[in-house]
Amino acid sequence: MSTIKSDVEKLFQKELESANQRFPMFHSDYEGAAVILEEIEEAHSEMLDMELHYKSLWQTVKENFINTASYAELVFDDAINLACEAIQVAAMAQKFIGSQKEREKSR
Questions:
Q1: Listed residue (9, 33, 4, 19) closest to 93, CA to CA
Q2: Which residues contact 86 (CB under 8 A, 6 or more apart)?
Q3: Which of 43, 79, 98, 107 has the most crowded CB, counting CB atoms within 10 A?
Q4: The domain containing residue 65 runs over which residues?
């Protein structure tokens, strides 16, 4: 997992850099917390989709259907989307920290 974690940290850094280029630092803790919550809600939605698709996969497996791979493909897509959303949560949490430090310096 350490290899994967290193790769995820690189993706997180890339996402943070992109977000910082496109959008200013958070003007307040309220703004930052709201953005983090939005990303958490999107991750949660992806998780719910993945669970739903997995339940369909498991049901088709139990019923011995031939074409179960289509549900596995949906689970795969959901897992990738969830990973992307989790990276965005991490990036926004780090942006929150950076924004707070910048505001403290300017006081």
A1: 33
A2: 43
A3: 43
A4: 2-106
Contact predicate 89/39, CB 8 Å: yes
Determine if residue 24 is left, alpha or beta; phi over 0 gives left, psi from -120 to 50 gives alpha, anything else beta: beta
Distance CA 107, CA 99 (A): 13
DSSP string, 38-98: HHHHHHHHHHHHHHHHHHHHHHHHHTT-S--HHHHHHHHHHHHHHHHHHHHHHHHHHHHHH
Specify the number of domains making up the chain: 1
